[in-house]
Protein backbone atom coordinates (compact mmCIF):
# COMPACT_ATOMS: atom_id res chain seq x y z
CA UNK A 1 0.00 0.00 0.00
CA UNK A 2 1.21 3.49 -0.85
CA UNK A 3 1.43 6.00 1.96
CA UNK A 4 -0.94 8.94 1.58
CA UNK A 5 -0.52 11.91 3.95
CA UNK A 6 -3.67 13.02 5.73
CA UNK A 7 -5.26 16.11 4.21
CA UNK A 8 -5.21 17.57 7.72
CA UNK A 9 -1.40 17.30 7.71
CA UNK A 10 -1.60 20.50 5.69
CA UNK A 11 2.13 21.18 5.55
CA UNK A 12 3.03 17.55 4.88
CA UNK A 13 5.19 16.84 7.93
CA UNK A 14 4.56 13.09 7.63
CA UNK A 15 6.20 13.09 4.20
CA UNK A 16 9.53 13.55 5.99
CA UNK A 17 9.23 10.13 7.65
CA UNK A 18 11.37 7.24 6.44
CA UNK A 19 9.70 4.92 3.91
CA UNK A 20 9.48 2.03 6.38
CA UNK A 21 7.84 4.36 8.90
CA UNK A 22 5.30 5.49 6.32
CA UNK A 23 4.60 1.84 5.49
CA UNK A 24 3.96 1.10 9.18
CA UNK A 25 1.57 4.06 9.46
CA UNK A 26 -0.30 2.82 6.40
CA UNK A 27 -0.72 -0.64 7.92
CA UNK A 28 -2.01 0.73 11.21
CA UNK A 29 -4.37 3.18 9.44
CA UNK A 30 -5.79 0.33 7.36
CA UNK A 31 -6.27 -1.86 10.44
CA UNK A 32 -8.09 0.90 12.30
CA UNK A 33 -10.35 1.66 9.33
CA UNK A 34 -11.27 -1.99 8.85
CA UNK A 35 -11.57 -3.16 12.45
CA UNK A 36 -12.15 -0.23 14.78
CA UNK A 37 -13.84 2.76 13.16
CA UNK A 38 -17.28 1.19 12.75
CA UNK A 39 -17.37 -0.18 16.31
CA UNK A 40 -16.24 2.66 18.53
CA UNK A 41 -19.50 4.59 18.84
CA UNK A 42 -21.34 1.53 20.15
CA UNK A 43 -18.45 0.63 22.46
CA UNK A 44 -18.28 4.22 23.74
CA UNK A 45 -22.01 4.30 24.44
CA UNK A 46 -21.84 0.97 26.28
CA UNK A 47 -18.58 1.87 28.09
CA UNK A 48 -17.12 -1.45 26.95
CA UNK A 49 -13.55 -2.26 25.94
CA UNK A 50 -13.00 -4.44 22.82
CA UNK A 51 -10.77 -7.09 24.32
CA UNK A 52 -10.95 -9.09 21.09
CA UNK A 53 -9.00 -6.33 19.32
CA UNK A 54 -5.96 -6.41 21.62
CA UNK A 55 -4.16 -9.31 19.91
CA UNK A 56 -4.68 -8.14 16.30
CA UNK A 57 -3.89 -4.53 17.24
CA UNK A 58 -0.63 -5.50 18.92
CA UNK A 59 0.17 -7.76 15.95
CA UNK A 60 0.45 -4.61 13.81
CA UNK A 61 3.55 -3.75 15.84
CA UNK A 62 2.15 -0.65 17.54
CA UNK A 63 3.70 -1.61 20.87
CA UNK A 64 7.13 -2.58 19.63
CA UNK A 65 8.63 0.64 18.34
CA UNK A 66 9.96 2.48 21.38
CA UNK A 67 12.57 0.19 22.94
CA UNK A 68 15.60 -1.64 21.60
CA UNK A 69 14.47 -4.88 23.27
CA UNK A 70 11.34 -4.99 21.11
CA UNK A 71 11.68 -2.96 17.91
CA UNK A 72 12.41 -4.60 14.60
CA UNK A 73 13.85 -1.49 12.93
CA UNK A 74 15.17 1.94 13.80
CA UNK A 75 12.48 4.58 14.00
CA UNK A 76 12.04 8.15 15.12
CA UNK A 77 10.04 9.71 17.93
CA UNK A 78 8.29 11.72 15.21
CA UNK A 79 7.06 8.47 13.67
CA UNK A 80 5.83 7.26 17.05
CA UNK A 81 4.01 10.56 17.42
CA UNK A 82 2.26 10.18 14.08
CA UNK A 83 1.34 6.63 15.12
CA UNK A 84 -0.41 8.08 18.18
CA UNK A 85 -2.13 10.65 15.97
CA UNK A 86 -3.45 7.91 13.68
CA UNK A 87 -4.85 5.96 16.62
CA UNK A 88 -6.43 9.02 18.21
CA UNK A 89 -8.09 10.31 15.03
CA UNK A 90 -10.12 7.08 15.05
CA UNK A 91 -10.59 6.73 18.80
CA UNK A 92 -8.90 8.39 21.76
CA UNK A 93 -9.74 5.46 24.05
CA UNK A 94 -7.83 2.94 21.94
CA UNK A 95 -4.92 5.37 21.83
CA UNK A 96 -5.13 5.76 25.61
CA UNK A 97 -5.14 2.00 26.11
CA UNK A 98 -1.94 1.78 24.11
CA UNK A 99 -0.49 4.88 25.75
CA UNK A 100 -0.93 3.27 29.16
CA UNK A 101 0.43 -0.20 28.44
CA UNK A 102 3.07 0.81 25.86
CA UNK A 103 3.81 4.33 27.05
CA UNK A 104 3.44 4.51 30.81
CA UNK A 105 3.96 0.89 31.85
CA UNK A 106 6.64 0.04 29.29
CA UNK A 107 8.07 3.53 29.70
CA UNK A 108 8.46 3.07 33.45
CA UNK A 109 10.33 -0.19 32.91
CA UNK A 110 12.27 1.14 29.93
CA UNK A 111 13.41 4.28 31.74
CA UNK A 112 13.70 3.02 35.31
CA UNK A 113 14.13 -0.74 35.05
CA UNK A 114 17.32 -2.75 35.23
CA UNK A 115 18.62 -4.56 32.15
CA UNK A 116 17.12 -7.77 33.53
CA UNK A 117 13.73 -6.13 34.16
CA UNK A 118 13.69 -4.62 30.70
CA UNK A 119 14.54 -7.96 29.08
CA UNK A 120 11.86 -9.81 31.07
CA UNK A 121 8.94 -7.42 30.85
CA UNK A 122 9.23 -5.23 27.75
CA UNK A 123 8.77 -7.98 25.12
CA UNK A 124 5.71 -9.35 26.95
CA UNK A 125 4.09 -5.91 27.07
CA UNK A 126 5.02 -5.07 23.48
CA UNK A 127 3.42 -8.23 22.11
CA UNK A 128 0.26 -7.91 24.19
CA UNK A 129 1.05 -11.14 26.02
CA UNK A 130 0.46 -9.10 29.16
CA UNK A 131 -1.26 -5.73 29.65
CA UNK A 132 0.17 -2.96 31.80
CA UNK A 133 -1.26 -0.13 33.88
CA UNK A 134 0.34 2.83 35.68
CA UNK A 135 -0.60 3.77 39.23
CA UNK A 136 0.46 7.27 40.23
CA UNK A 137 -2.70 9.36 40.78
CA UNK A 138 -4.48 8.91 44.10
CA UNK A 139 -7.95 9.88 45.38
CA UNK A 140 -6.48 12.94 47.13
CA UNK A 141 -3.29 13.40 45.12
CA UNK A 142 -3.17 14.42 41.47
CA UNK A 143 -1.27 17.58 40.61
CA UNK A 144 0.71 17.35 43.86
CA UNK A 145 1.95 13.79 43.30
CA UNK A 146 5.56 14.88 43.80
CA UNK A 147 4.87 15.58 47.48
CA UNK A 148 1.38 14.35 48.21
CA UNK A 149 1.51 10.58 47.64
CA UNK A 150 0.10 8.65 50.58
CA UNK A 151 0.65 5.13 49.23
CA UNK A 152 3.54 3.65 51.18
CA UNK A 153 6.23 1.06 50.55
CA UNK A 154 8.00 -0.58 53.47
CA UNK A 155 10.95 -2.88 53.00
CA UNK A 156 11.07 -6.06 55.05
CA UNK A 157 14.20 -7.96 54.06
CA UNK A 158 13.84 -9.00 50.44
CA UNK A 159 10.15 -8.03 50.36
CA UNK A 160 8.32 -4.73 49.95
CA UNK A 161 4.91 -4.18 51.54
CA UNK A 162 2.63 -1.71 49.75
CA UNK A 163 -0.40 0.00 51.27
CA UNK A 164 -2.61 2.73 49.86
CA UNK A 165 -5.02 3.63 47.09
CA UNK A 166 -4.87 4.82 43.47
CA UNK A 167 -7.55 6.39 41.27
CA UNK A 168 -8.24 6.94 37.56
CA UNK A 169 -5.90 4.10 36.60
CA UNK A 170 -6.46 3.19 32.94
CA UNK A 171 -6.50 -0.50 31.94
CA UNK A 172 -6.52 -1.44 35.62
CA UNK A 173 -9.64 -3.61 35.50
CA UNK A 174 -7.86 -6.10 33.26
CA UNK A 175 -4.12 -5.36 33.48
CA UNK A 176 -1.69 -8.15 34.35
CA UNK A 177 0.79 -5.78 35.98
CA UNK A 178 0.48 -2.25 37.34
CA UNK A 179 3.40 0.06 37.96
CA UNK A 180 2.77 1.40 41.45
CA UNK A 181 4.49 4.54 42.70
CA UNK A 182 4.76 4.77 46.49
CA UNK A 183 6.68 6.59 49.19
CA UNK A 184 9.38 4.59 50.94
CA UNK A 185 8.64 4.79 54.66
CA UNK A 186 12.39 4.69 55.35
CA UNK A 187 13.48 7.79 53.40
CA UNK A 188 10.27 9.44 52.20
CA UNK A 189 11.30 9.14 48.53
CA UNK A 190 8.96 7.98 45.75
CA UNK A 191 9.87 4.58 44.33
CA UNK A 192 8.37 2.44 41.57
CA UNK A 193 7.28 -1.20 41.66
CA UNK A 194 6.09 -3.80 39.15
CA UNK A 195 3.01 -5.26 40.84
CA UNK A 196 1.33 -8.35 39.39
CA UNK A 197 -2.39 -7.74 39.76
CA UNK A 198 -2.92 -11.29 41.02
CA UNK A 199 -0.97 -10.46 44.18
CA UNK A 200 -3.05 -10.89 47.38
CA UNK A 201 -4.23 -7.55 48.75
CA UNK A 202 -4.46 -5.89 45.32
CA UNK A 203 -7.93 -5.02 44.05
CA UNK A 204 -9.30 -2.84 41.23
CA UNK A 205 -12.86 -1.53 40.86
CA UNK A 206 -14.13 0.04 37.65
CA UNK A 207 -15.06 3.74 37.77
CA UNK A 208 -18.57 4.10 36.40
CA UNK A 209 -20.66 6.96 34.93
CA UNK A 210 -17.85 8.68 33.02
CA UNK A 211 -18.67 11.17 30.28
CA UNK A 212 -15.25 11.01 28.62
CA UNK A 213 -13.05 8.18 27.31
CA UNK A 214 -15.84 5.77 28.16
CA UNK A 215 -14.13 2.85 26.41
CA UNK A 216 -11.11 3.17 28.71
CA UNK A 217 -11.53 0.98 31.77
CA UNK A 218 -10.39 3.27 34.58
CA UNK A 219 -10.30 1.87 38.09
CA UNK A 220 -9.90 2.63 41.75
CA UNK A 221 -7.11 0.48 43.15
CA UNK A 222 -6.66 -0.51 46.77
CA UNK A 223 -3.43 -1.98 48.09
CA UNK A 224 -3.69 -3.78 51.43
CA UNK A 225 -0.44 -5.31 52.65
CA UNK A 226 0.55 -6.19 49.10
CA UNK A 227 3.83 -8.05 49.37
CA UNK A 228 6.19 -8.22 46.39
CA UNK A 229 9.81 -9.34 46.09
CA UNK A 230 12.61 -6.78 45.93
CA UNK A 231 13.28 -8.01 42.37
CA UNK A 232 10.07 -6.22 41.32
CA UNK A 233 11.20 -2.84 42.57
CA UNK A 234 12.25 -0.77 39.54
CA UNK A 235 15.99 -0.57 40.04
CA UNK A 236 16.38 3.03 38.89
CA UNK A 237 13.15 4.49 40.30
CA UNK A 238 14.29 6.02 43.55
CA UNK A 239 12.92 9.58 43.63
CA UNK A 240 10.05 11.47 42.00
CA UNK A 241 12.62 12.88 39.58
CA UNK A 242 12.76 9.37 38.10
CA UNK A 243 8.97 9.31 37.81
CA UNK A 244 9.19 12.65 36.01
CA UNK A 245 11.48 11.13 33.39
CA UNK A 246 8.66 8.79 32.41
CA UNK A 247 6.09 11.59 32.39
CA UNK A 248 8.33 13.70 30.15
CA UNK A 249 8.02 11.06 27.45
CA UNK A 250 4.33 10.38 27.84
CA UNK A 251 3.27 14.04 28.06
CA UNK A 252 4.62 14.49 24.56
CA UNK A 253 2.54 11.46 23.60
CA UNK A 254 -0.59 13.07 25.03
CA UNK A 255 0.17 16.16 22.94
CA UNK A 256 0.24 13.98 19.83
CA UNK A 257 -2.96 12.24 20.92
CA UNK A 258 -4.72 15.57 21.34
CA UNK A 259 -3.76 16.46 17.76
CA UNK A 260 -5.32 13.18 16.65
CA UNK A 261 -8.55 13.98 18.48
CA UNK A 262 -8.63 17.40 16.84
CA UNK A 263 -8.02 15.78 13.43
CA UNK A 264 -10.81 13.25 13.97
CA UNK A 265 -13.30 15.98 14.89
CA UNK A 266 -12.17 18.21 12.02
CA UNK A 267 -12.44 15.43 9.45
CA UNK A 268 -15.94 14.55 10.62
CA UNK A 269 -17.02 18.20 10.58
CA UNK A 270 -15.59 18.74 7.08
CA UNK A 271 -17.39 15.66 5.71
CA UNK A 272 -20.62 16.79 7.33
CA UNK A 273 -20.29 20.32 5.96
CA UNK A 274 -19.78 19.00 2.45
CA UNK A 275 -22.94 16.91 2.69
CA UNK A 276 -25.33 19.02 4.78
CA UNK A 277 -27.48 21.33 2.64
CA UNK A 278 -28.93 24.58 4.00
CA UNK A 279 -30.14 27.63 2.10
CA UNK A 280 -29.89 25.73 -1.14
CA UNK A 281 -26.27 24.56 -1.00
CA UNK A 282 -23.87 22.52 1.17
CA UNK A 283 -22.95 24.47 4.30
CA UNK A 284 -19.27 24.05 3.32
CA UNK A 285 -19.98 26.81 0.82
CA UNK A 286 -20.92 29.33 3.49
CA UNK A 287 -18.32 31.82 4.71
CA UNK A 288 -18.83 31.26 8.44
CA UNK A 289 -18.37 27.50 8.07
CA UNK A 290 -15.21 27.95 6.00
CA UNK A 291 -13.88 30.30 8.67
CA UNK A 292 -14.42 27.67 11.38
CA UNK A 293 -12.84 24.93 9.25
CA UNK A 294 -9.81 27.13 8.56
CA UNK A 295 -9.44 27.84 12.27
CA UNK A 296 -9.57 24.12 13.02
CA UNK A 297 -6.92 23.41 10.40
CA UNK A 298 -4.68 26.20 11.71
CA UNK A 299 -4.82 24.76 15.24
CA UNK A 300 -4.01 21.29 13.92
CA UNK A 301 -1.13 22.53 11.77
CA UNK A 302 0.45 24.56 14.56
CA UNK A 303 0.11 21.64 16.96
CA UNK A 304 1.67 19.14 14.54
CA UNK A 305 4.60 21.51 14.02
CA UNK A 306 5.16 21.82 17.76
CA UNK A 307 4.84 18.06 18.30
CA UNK A 308 7.24 17.27 15.47
CA UNK A 309 9.88 19.52 16.98
CA UNK A 310 9.50 18.24 20.54
CA UNK A 311 9.79 14.68 19.21
CA UNK A 312 12.90 15.61 17.23
CA UNK A 313 14.34 16.98 20.47
CA UNK A 314 13.70 13.60 22.08
CA UNK A 315 15.72 11.90 19.35
CA UNK A 316 18.45 14.51 19.85
CA UNK A 317 18.44 13.84 23.63
CA UNK A 318 17.62 17.53 24.07
CA UNK A 319 14.03 17.27 25.31
CA UNK A 320 13.50 18.59 28.85
CA UNK A 321 10.45 18.59 31.13
CA UNK A 322 9.45 22.09 30.07
CA UNK A 323 9.50 21.14 26.38
CA UNK A 324 7.01 18.30 26.76
CA UNK A 325 4.97 20.36 29.25
CA UNK A 326 4.58 23.19 26.74
CA UNK A 327 3.55 20.73 24.03
CA UNK A 328 0.96 19.10 26.29
CA UNK A 329 -0.56 22.35 27.53
CA UNK A 330 -0.64 24.06 24.12
CA UNK A 331 -1.89 21.15 22.04
CA UNK A 332 -4.65 20.12 24.44
CA UNK A 333 -5.89 23.71 24.61
CA UNK A 334 -5.94 23.96 20.81
CA UNK A 335 -7.68 20.57 20.67
CA UNK A 336 -10.38 21.84 23.02
CA UNK A 337 -11.00 24.83 20.74
CA UNK A 338 -11.02 22.67 17.64
CA UNK A 339 -13.52 20.07 18.85
CA UNK A 340 -15.75 22.93 20.01
CA UNK A 341 -15.69 24.52 16.58
CA UNK A 342 -16.32 21.14 14.96
CA UNK A 343 -19.36 20.62 17.19
CA UNK A 344 -20.54 24.12 16.29
CA UNK A 345 -20.40 23.28 12.58
CA UNK A 346 -22.77 20.37 13.17
CA UNK A 347 -25.24 22.38 15.22
CA UNK A 348 -27.61 20.11 17.13
CA UNK A 349 -26.24 17.04 15.35
CA UNK A 350 -22.95 17.71 17.09
CA UNK A 351 -24.20 16.28 20.39
CA UNK A 352 -25.22 12.82 19.15
CA UNK A 353 -22.87 9.97 18.33
CA UNK A 354 -24.29 9.38 14.84
CA UNK A 355 -22.40 12.21 13.14
CA UNK A 356 -18.81 11.59 14.24
CA UNK A 357 -17.99 14.64 16.38
CA UNK A 358 -19.73 14.16 19.75
CA UNK A 359 -17.35 11.42 20.91
CA UNK A 360 -14.26 13.51 20.15
CA UNK A 361 -15.91 16.52 21.79
CA UNK A 362 -16.44 14.53 25.00
CA UNK A 363 -13.13 12.67 24.97
CA UNK A 364 -11.17 15.89 24.61
CA UNK A 365 -12.03 16.81 28.19
CA UNK A 366 -10.07 13.87 29.59
CA UNK A 367 -6.97 14.59 27.51
CA UNK A 368 -7.16 18.23 28.59
CA UNK A 369 -6.76 17.17 32.23
CA UNK A 370 -4.73 13.99 32.49
CA UNK A 371 -0.93 13.69 32.67
CA UNK A 372 -0.81 17.17 34.14
CA UNK A 373 -3.49 19.81 33.82
CA UNK A 374 -2.89 22.77 31.53
CA UNK A 375 -2.15 24.93 34.57
CA UNK A 376 0.40 22.52 36.08
CA UNK A 377 2.20 22.22 32.78
CA UNK A 378 2.33 25.98 32.35
CA UNK A 379 3.94 26.21 35.81
CA UNK A 380 6.63 23.76 34.67
CA UNK A 381 7.26 26.03 31.68
CA UNK A 382 7.06 29.13 33.87
CA UNK A 383 9.68 27.77 36.25
CA UNK A 384 12.00 27.23 33.31
CA UNK A 385 11.61 30.66 31.76
CA UNK A 386 11.67 32.67 35.02
CA UNK A 387 14.00 30.58 37.15
CA UNK A 388 11.41 30.69 39.96
CA UNK A 389 9.03 27.92 40.98
CA UNK A 390 5.43 29.03 41.56
CA UNK A 391 4.14 25.71 42.88
CA UNK A 392 2.40 25.94 46.26
TrEMBL record:
Record Pfam families: Acyl-CoA_dh_1 (PF00441), Acyl-CoA_dh_M (PF02770), Acyl-CoA_dh_N (PF02771)
Required co-factors: FAD
GO terms of biological process kind: fatty acid beta-oxidation
Residues in Acyl-CoA oxidase/dehydrogenase middle domain copies: 133-226
Record Gene3D superfamilies: Acyl-CoA dehydrogenase/oxidase, N-terminal domain, Butyryl-CoA Dehydrogenase, subunit A, domain 2, Butyryl-CoA Dehydrogenase, subunit A, domain 3
Keyword hit for NADP: no
Acyl-CoA dehydrogenase/oxidase C-terminal domain location: 245-385
Family named by the database record: Belongs to the acyl-CoA dehydrogenase family.
Protein name from the UniProt record: Acyl-CoA dehydrogenase
Organism, as annotated: Mycetocola tolaasinivorans
Amino acid sequence: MTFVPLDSDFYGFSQRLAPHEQDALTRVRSFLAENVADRVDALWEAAEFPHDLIAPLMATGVGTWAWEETRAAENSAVFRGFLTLELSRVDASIATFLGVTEGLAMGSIGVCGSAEQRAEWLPKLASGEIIGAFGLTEPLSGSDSARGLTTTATREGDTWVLNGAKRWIGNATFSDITIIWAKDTADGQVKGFIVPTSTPGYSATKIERKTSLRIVQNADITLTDVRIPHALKLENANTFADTAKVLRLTRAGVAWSSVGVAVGAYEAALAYAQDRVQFGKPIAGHQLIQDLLARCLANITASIALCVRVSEMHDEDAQRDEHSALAKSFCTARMRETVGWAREILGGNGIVLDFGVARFFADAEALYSYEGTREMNTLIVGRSITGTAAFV
